[in-house]
C-alpha cells in the first residue's frame, strides 16, 4: 500500500513539473541550425585583424535628419549609430552575431546561454566584468527592466517581435530567464539575445523617461560614448578606452577608430 502511495505521489510530482524545470547546459554560443563556426577557444573573428592599430577619425554620412538620441521609441527621429537591434556603438546586447555566419550568436554581455531541448525557455548568464560607462555592473535587473520597458513604452515593433515571451525573471544578480508562451519559435532565443540592454539605475532617476525623446547623451555600456551633438546635423562617437569588453574574442580587432 505504501509503495502505491509513493508511486502516486511521484506521478503527481512529474506531471506538475513546469516546462522550465528542464535543465540545459550553459554554452558560450548558440546556433539555430547545426553547430557554431567558432569554438570556445577562438581568439578573434576571421574577418578582423586582432593587431589592428587604434586611432584616427572615420567620417560617415546618413540620409535625413535626427532630433533624438533615443532609438527605442516611435517618437522622434534617432541619430545614426544608436541601433537597438544588431550592432550599436553605444549599447551592448546580450549576444553578438558574427558576420560570416548566419543564425548564430556569441556571448557579449552574457558569457553563456542555456536552452533546453524543448525550447520552452532560455536563460542568460551575464559576465561579472560587464560594466556601464559609469563603472557600475550590468545586472540581471537591468535586463528585466529593459525588456519590460520596451514592451510597455518601446516602439510597437517590440510587442510583435517578443510577443511569444511569457515572462522574464532575474534568478540571481547575473542570471535571467525568459519563459516562452509556446516552444514553436526556434528563432526566439536568438531574437532575445539581440536586445540592447539599458541601465535601470540611469533611466529610473526622476526626470528621465525611456518613453520620451532626448538629446542628452544617455549612459551606455558599448565601445563608444556620445561626444558632440549638433541636432539634425552631426553626432560624434568617441571610443571608450575603458570599455569593459574590448578584449573579448568577439570584439578583438573591431572598433578601431578613436572617433
Short structural description:
This protein has 259 residues and is α+β, with helices and mostly antiparallel strands.
List the helices and strands and how they pair.
Elements: H1 2-16, E1 29-31, E2 95-97, E3 104-107, E4 110-114, E5 121-126, H2 140-153, H3 156-161, E6 165-172, E7 175-180, H4 188-193, H5 200-203, E8 224-230, E9 234-239
Antiparallel strand pairs: 1-3, 2-3, 4-5, 5-7, 6-7, 8-9
Descriptive labels:
259 residues; alpha+beta; 4-stranded antiparallel beta sheet; 3-stranded antiparallel beta sheet; 5 helices; 19% strand
Written overview of the protein:
Helices cover 17% and strands 19% of the residues. It is of the alpha+beta class and 259 residues long. It is globular, with a radius of gyration of 20 Å. The termini are far apart. Mean pLDDT is 91; it is low at 1-20.
Largest sheet: 4 strands, antiparallel
Straight-line distance between termini = 77 Å
SSE pattern: HEEEEEHHEEHHEE
Q: pLDDT average, as an integer?
A: 91
Measured by DSSP, the beta-strand proportion falls in 15-25%
Arrangement of strands in the largest sheet: 4-5-7-6
Which radius of gyration do the C-alpha atoms yield? 20 Å
Ranges where pLDDT stays below 50 over 5 or more residues in a row are: 1-20
Number of helices: 5
Number of strands: 9
Q: Overall 3D geometry?
A: globular
Query: Structural class given helices, strands, pairing?
Result: alpha+beta
State the helicity in percent bands. 10-25%
